[in-house]
Every structure is written in C-alpha cells, then in structure tokens.
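Hi everyone,

Forwarding the result from last night's run.
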Amino acid sequence: MTESERVPVERKRRRPTSTGVVLSADLIVDTACQLIDAQGAGAFTVRKLGAALGADPSAVYRYFRNTEDLLLALADRLIGESMAGFAPSGDWGADLRDFGLRAYRSALRHPQIAVFSTVRVTGRPHEQRAVDTGIGLLLQAGFDEAAAVRHYHALVDTVLGHAALDAAFLRLAPAQRAADEEAWQAAYGSLSEEAYPSIHRVRDCLPLMSGTAVEAALDLLIAALRATR
C-alpha cells in the first residue's frame, strides 16, 4: 500500500496551495525531509511543514493520518534511497556488504532523520522490498529459513546501530566533534606503559577510533557467515 492509498481519496487536496503547488504525498515527504535535515527532528512541527508547503497545516492530514504516519513515511523514504540502483552481483557476501553499506550511507545523508528512523519498523513498500532482498541473499547462500532471518536481523541491527551512533555524532557541534576526535591522541596517546600497557602499545593507531567502524563490523559478520557455509 502506497502512502497515497493510506488516506481516503476524497480527503486529498486537488487545488493548488497559496504558492501554486498541488500537494501530493511525495511532495510532503520531500519537504518534511528538507525541514528536518536543516532544523533537526526536535524542531519539526506540522505547522512549520504547512508554512513551507504554502498550505494550512491541516492539509497534511489529507495525505497522512497523523504525524506518526508521516514520520514512518520519512523512514521508508531513506530505505528507498538505499535500495535505488542496487543490483546483486551473484556473490552473496559482497552483495550483503553492499546492501548494508547502502543502508548506512543513506542514513548518514540524513542524520537528523536517522536518529529516529533507525529504530522504527515502517511496514511500508521500500522496507518490505529491502527485507525481501536481504533475506533472499541469505537464502541464496544456503542458509535455512530460520537462520536467514536471524542473520538478516543481525546484519541490519549492526548497520543501523552504527548509523544511529554516527548520526548522533554528526549532530554534535563541530567543536564537540573535534574535541572527541582529538581526545584519542591527547588523552589516551600519552598514557604510561606501566599503567596502561595495551593502550600504550597501540597508541599510534588510536586515531582510528575516531572513524566509523561499520565496514569493519560488516566484514567480520560476513566473514563469520562465509565460514559457516
């Protein structure tokens, strides 16, 4: 069921708004996405959305039953972005890696949305297609039905967990991000060998802690899956 099918047709606006735009579910989602990207999820209101659309805020509810319905549509939009252009190569492990990184990168393009979207189940077409694709890759690899579902769950939670953490980091003020990144060298790099032998041994590698670990996590997970085949 598409978003436009979720609300009775008679409730949808057919006349142009004050800015000459004819509303649609896609236009509302696009505009909401732009607002949240720019101002943050905490500042988002349907009143602001209506103003950006040049329409009375109540017009939004001709396309979405409530704010929750709209936010789930936004979450599903990110999943659709991640799946755009995905073409399996035939190597299930490489395809799962690509699948996971696409989801991660889509979330990080919209960190303000990812903070809430990564913990939701949309139940909508893009998510349904993604779930079918991911589980299909694991079935193709030879896992049985229950194992395919468990491994898909582990893969998605790994990716979205990293996306949520990294999205939250991107929401910090630039000075806060810089301080956290520098701390790995400034606060940890000078620790004594006697008190912290392991940290001292890897002190030159500690700046790696400031980057994302999503690719390393995916590589470990997929290597473990390959080892069971």
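The chain has ten helices and no strands.

Cheers,
N.
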